[in-house]
């Protein structure tokens, strides 16, 4: 580990595998239904409206930072926001997720997907600028959905457990598949560049459902496109750390690292010590508390937090997080207690 620069936040230091004054912690879905102030603000406001209103994006992003004392903010948005911005009819239904009115299943539908331009998402740029001004020393994480996870919503038309139509397209019409993913990679790359240009200090690429694939299919059909997204950020802003996350990806961690990540996100199925060995000494790890354990008694939860930090010590850098998003039924006081405990334990 090299010495931290004086102005570097604990979060950015850990991402860069530098020594930090404390172990950084933030939570995926830290903004959302677990917070009463979020539920109050969202009363009668559709998700896509909230995601396209700079003042709401800003306020919702700041809520968990104020309440929990986390080391990073994550932009309040959704992976389908850039798809809506290029005119795809997609809505987010409470308790369900994204619903696509006309699923994308053939060459003609793929050909109709146009590139994203920065001014398609000017409400995101505006929100990021407001946030950077408000956040002071707390870094803002920008994010995008990775091509495979976006493709799954577009092809299936909504959430899917099996990703059956997606896999059928991938194998049955590989050229159509690669063209779809190339277009989605362009959109995700531009969405991240917009956020970085407006002041996001790090980015996370969410390939939430990549764990449904074999390592061979991931390498052939997905990794080149995710690599293109991460490369777009690296070329525009090499100093901005890139986090690459998926669920159930224990068998994909080396490939996700090699796609161009500085930090690899890990769910609770893989111990961080194993993840550290899989991604090697040139990457930090992020994770990996099972979000369900936030509903367990504090003594049980605290033991889990200590175990995860001890395993994270074996990595070149450790950003504490959950293995997936905060569940809506979570008591936010438990999140605050986890932040406090992680900060009191010795840094990695
Ligand atoms: O982490 C954060 O605090 C930032 C906000 C964020 C949201 N979506 C807000 C949101 C992020 C990073 C996302 C990304 C996202 N969206 C992913 C990747 C991360 C992951 O969870 O794996 C995925 C797969 C989606 C698609 C999506 N959007 C789903 C599956 C859902 C849940 C549907 C539900 O209601 O249970 C959404 C909706 C969504 N995105 C909500 C929030 C706060 C809930 C909407 C609400 O509050 O009404």
From TrEMBL:
Its main location: cytoplasm. GO terms for cellular component: cytosol. It is found in: Cytoplasm. Residues 24-33, 141-157 form the Uroporphyrinogen decarboxylase (URO-D) domain. The record marks 78 as: Transition state stabilizer. Pfam families: URO-D (PF01208). It catalyses: uroporphyrinogen III + 4 H(+) = coproporphyrinogen III + 4 CO2. Pathway: Porphyrin-containing compound metabolism; protoporphyrin-IX biosynthesis; coproporphyrinogen-III from 5-aminolevulinate: step 4/4. GO terms for biological process: protoporphyrinogen IX biosynthetic process. Substrate binds at residues 29-33, 78, 153, 208, 324. GO terms for molecular function: uroporphyrinogen decarboxylase activity. It is an enzyme of class 4 (lyase). PROSITE patterns: UROD_1, UROD_2. Keywords: Cytoplasm, Decarboxylase, Lyase, Porphyrin biosynthesis. Its EC number is 4.1.1.37. Homodimer. Belongs to the uroporphyrinogen decarboxylase family. Catalyzes the decarboxylation of four acetate groups of uroporphyrinogen-III to yield coproporphyrinogen-III. This is Uroporphyrinogen decarboxylase. It comes from Actinocatenispora thailandica. The lineage of its organism: Bacteria, Bacillati, Actinomycetota, Actinomycetes, Micromonosporales. The gene is hemE.
